[in-house]
Amino acid sequence: MAQRTLLVVLFDGVQSLDVTGPVEVFSGAERHSPGTYRVRTASLDGGPVRTSSGLTLVPDGSLTRASEPHTLLVPGGEGTRRPDPRLVEWLRSAGPRARRLVSVCTGAILLARAGLLDGRRVTTHWAYCETLARQHPAVEVDPDPIFVRDGDVATSAGVTAGIDLALALVEEDLGRDAALTVARHLVVFLRRPGNQAQFSAQLAAQTARREPLRDVQQWITEHPAGDLSVESLAARAALSPRHFARAFQAETGMPPGRYVDRVRLEHARRLLEDTADGIEEISRASGYGTPEAMRRAFLRTLGASPAEYRRRFRPAPVT
To answer: Ranges for the HTH araC/xylS-type domain (predicted)?
Structure first.
């Protein structure tokens, strides 16, 4: 198996965890399977860079002297907001020569500025998805997943999602056993599916302004197996069903049915991840009623059955 060179781009204002998270994953894979990865870091002039948290990172060398990598990884951070034009030009020139382009968090903004994401489906940190889409209309921005693969381009959401993406790439390159070993050493899950939402239901929706609607939101979260029909929820808020549905969407940003779907899916995911309960028991506890109804919801939203989700997400016990 040929060794893959991973080149990580460093710049002032980089987010330190965007760098160290993936580097730890690929370095761990190299320790597991020697000769598979060669991890290098480089800045424009080869000098140290100061991260957004104040840490100083010393690169292995300069970008201008770096050999063409198999995988070019561009992290995010405050430094992507007003990047050095020379860095953008270097990416525009060097990016197409890499076998695989990877960005973490707002590193996607740098790739977009270099014209490397046109016509691609990508993601980035939720707070910058709208900005990326507005400034680069030729880029298809999906704000929901934690990472997205589009051919030889892979982009991830904020910070820790870079670890999820790196584990997925190691699994693709070396197989599940290698990726699982790395995940165990890092004490992280292998692995969150890429199309898992960046947000929980409670974070994805806005908090309603009016107390009765806030109380309904909380009640839904605490009673996913209850009667969560619009009629029942409207009665709890002392509103007519039509008025309730309009007010709920206006104040939370989503219809009550979608909010209920998100809460139930999130509840089922947590039970799959954290308990040994059976699929049938979890489907009832999460409000689906039947395993088949839960299976359809998982396939529609996550692209995996509940059993497959549990297998991917819940690590085997470390022995």
So the answer is: 214-312
